[in-house]
Amino acid sequence: MSLPTAKQFEDLSGKIVEHGKVIKEKWYTYKGMLQALEQSKGDIVSAAVGSATKEVLTLATGVTTGVTLIPFAAVLTPWIGAAQVATQAGTIFELHDLKEFAVKPGEANGNKYFCMCGKCADNIQYVVDKKERNVGRIGIAVGTLGVSTIFTKAYSIGKFVKSYAKGEERPKERTCRGLLEAARGGCTVAMATVFLLAGNWQFMRGGEAGTMRRAIAMITSEDGHKVLMGEW
Predict the structure, then answer these.
(1) How many domains are contained in the chain?
(2) Are 191 and 114 in contact (CB under 8 A)?
(3) Is 192 within a domain?
(4) Residue 201, domain member (yes or no)
(5) Which of 12, 39, 110, 118 is deepest in the core (most CB within 10 A)?
(6) pLDDT in tens, 204-229
(7) 117-144 pLDDT, tens digit each
């Protein structure tokens, strides 16, 4: 899998952290941010960034879902375009690799990610364990004509109802919130993990703008964890 480089993530992190200060950490809705990023792509964004006029930025980024205007989308869209071109196709990254970077920062093919939150290793391990358990359950379900899947779903629903009744967060929700909060804070391992999960966990060639927009929308929204939960 090919992900943006560490330098690209650091650049994106700087933009997000700075904007978080401006909006006092009152982030957007996932739907609104994704719509703004979708509307911001194209020639109009280039004109907006080039002229830096408020009127053009408003025209480029006006949305009706979640928030009225997200000029920030006009700042992020050129980054997506640059990352799409510069991403190193063919570089293979999986969650196990990112966990190693979290434990002990490493370097591979010019990419070097750092964990700033100190929680990425545990969060990534939980994702890996959960995914591997799900794959195992699917295999068992095939051999038992889907019976195990029925009981798995019933058990999952039961856990959700029990946790909700107690006012507790499920581990999966807590993990997703943790990854997104760390990503917003500038942790490049967390950012890379969110980008990886926003696409295909098994295999994805880098430079896919749609995947990048989805990942950024998750990171910059207050309800992004709900979307991220559905990715694994």
Answers:
(1) 1
(2) no
(3) yes
(4) yes
(5) 12
(6) 454 588 899 999 999 999 999 999 99
(7) 999 999 999 999 998 887 554 444 444 5
Q: Looking at this protein, which amino acid is placed at residue 79?
A: W
Q: Which two tokens stand for residue 105?
A: 């920062």
Tell me how many degrees the CA angle 211-120-112 measures, rounded to the nearest 5.
Answer: 70
Sort 132 into a burial class: Cβ within 10 Å, 0-12 / 13-18 / 19+. Answer: exposed
Owner of token pair 């926003």: 198
Q: Determine, yes or no, domain membership for 129.
A: no
Express as a percent the part of the chain with pLDDT over 70.
62
pTM of the model: 0.74
Between CA 146 and CA 159 the distance in angstroms is 20
Kindly report the length of the chain: 232
Domain with 215, as residue range(s), is 6-121+171-229
Residue bearing tokens 């890379």: 192
Residue 54 maps to a domain: yes
Other C-beta atoms closer than 10 Å to the C-beta of 26 total: 9
Least reliable range by pLDDT among 52-56, 162-166, 206-210, 212-216 = 52-56
d(CA 87, CA 209): 11
